[in-house]
Amino acid sequence: MSRTEEEPGVRLLDTDSSDVRFKDALSELFAGDGTVYIVSGYFTYQGYRAIRDDIVSFLERSHENELVAVVSPASDQFSPRIAYDLWGMDDNDQVRLYKQPRGLHAKLYIRDGPEPTCILGSANITQIAFKYNTEINVQITRDTIDHPDVRQFRDWMVELVESSEPLRRRDLFAPFQVGGSVINWSNKARHLPRRNVALRAVPVIIILIFFSGMFSWLFSLI
User: Residues in domain Phospholipase D-like (predicted)?
Assistant: First the structure.
């Protein structure tokens, strides 16, 4: 199906060749009113900075607007500076941040309200995804959130929020974040052949211990 034949309300988003870039579509999500839900496996500070003005305008435009985000507080997946900045601007209890204890790899972005929009695909909220990686995403816009094309994703998101826990400041301390990364990788290792895990475990553990403090500091800058 050519782009001129695409179903109305459905757009292809990628890094280079589509008419609309993923980052621009993400900004458009905050141009409407309602609740914006975000789940991003990797959420870096520079990625956040690229859409921060859009978030600020969204929250200031109406006190009824809300931002709900589910993140992994592991050191290699989420920058604490994002949470502190959002909490600092949240004077009207419009921001809710949650942590997902399981490995978080999903990427889904939804706004309910008038002309609800859903974006799903491969892209995280990172500068690398915005400008460098080969990414593929689809944006779906419908007249009502009850339309099955978007309702199923909103329902999935609501269930994810309900199964998650509120993000706390202690979760953002470097030792807890590094510990989260170790737990995530340990859980993943359980699903791999033991021989593969054994061959990689020792050097990985040494690297994690040696670089944990440095890595947490560097990741907080990007």
Answer: 91-145
Range of the domain at 56: 3-171
Helix (H) or strand (E) holding 160: helix 148-163
User: 197 in a domain, yes or no?
Assistant: no
Task: Render pLDDT for 91-122 as a digit per residue (tens, 0 to 9).
Answer: 999 999 999 877 788 999 999 989 999 999 99
Contact 108, 39 (CB under 8 A): yes
- The number of distinct structural domains making up the chain is 1
Instruction: Supply the pLDDT for residue 104.
Output: 85
CA distance 210 to 190: 23
Q: Where in the chain does DSSP place strands (E)?
A: 10-14, 20-21, 35-40, 66-71, 95-99, 107-111, 117-121, 136-141, 165-166
Contact 107, 40 (CB under 8 A): yes
Averaged pLDDT, 137-155: 95
